[in-house]
Amino acid sequence: MQAVDLRDIELMEVESALDPSRRVRVAFPISSATGTAASASVYFELEPGAHVGVHTDSAEEFLIVLEGTGEGLVGDETARVEAGQIVVVPAMVRHDMTNVGEGPLRVLGTFAGSTVVATFEEPVAPDGPQVFVIGGPMPIVLPLAAAPA
């Protein structure tokens, strides 16, 4: 049985050199890299004022707000979201999440695919990576210009 305790996962800190409000602690605890065939997950935490960064994912995603208050962007729509709510993000639709609350925002996302390609509109650093593959056999990050057409 594959079971993940969100309190014990190791989070990677990602901060943008180009946008100081783009900072997130994130992990991908379930994916094809851990043995799943048709699903993956992301867990992330944002401090007040921080956001993930506008991006698209190759698979549909459900974002489950576990704690805090955020503002979700999906396509051209924005809405306030709070603990207990789920945001549906269709595949290849631009989206972002910003913490607009007083405390931490904690979100669990599930993907309808075990390997997911995430493409960010802005790199995290000049000439930095914009394309990330979640669940690949090894970590893959590429600047957008280097991504295969």
Give a structural overview:
This protein is an all-beta fold. Helices cover 0% and strands 44% of the residues. The chain contains no helices and 13 strands. It has a six-stranded antiparallel β-sheet with strand order 1-2-3-10-5-8, with no helix packed on it. The protein has a four-stranded antiparallel β-sheet with strand order 4-11-12-13, with no helix packed on it. A hairpin with a 5-residue loop joins strand 12 (131-134) and strand 13. The protein is globular, with a radius of gyration of 14 Å. The mean pLDDT is 92.
List keywords for this structure.
six-stranded antiparallel beta sheet, 149 residues, 44% strand
Short summary:
0% of the residues lie in helices and 44% in strands.
Assign an overall shape: globular
Whole-number mean pLDDT: 92
Contiguous helical run count: 0
Q: How many beta strands in the DSSP annotation?
A: 13
Biggest beta-sheet profile: 6 strands, antiparallel
Question: What is the spatial order of strands in the main beta sheet?
Answer: 1-2-3-10-5-8
Measured by DSSP, the beta-strand proportion falls in: 35-45%
List the helices and strands and how they pair.
Layout: E1 12-15, E2 23-27, E3 40-46, E4 55-57, E5 61-67, E6 69-74, E7 77-82, E8 86-89, E9 95-99, E10 105-111, E11 116-120, E12 131-134, E13 140-142
Antiparallel strand pairs: 1-2, 2-3, 3-10, 4-11, 5-8, 5-10, 6-7, 6-9, 11-12, 12-13
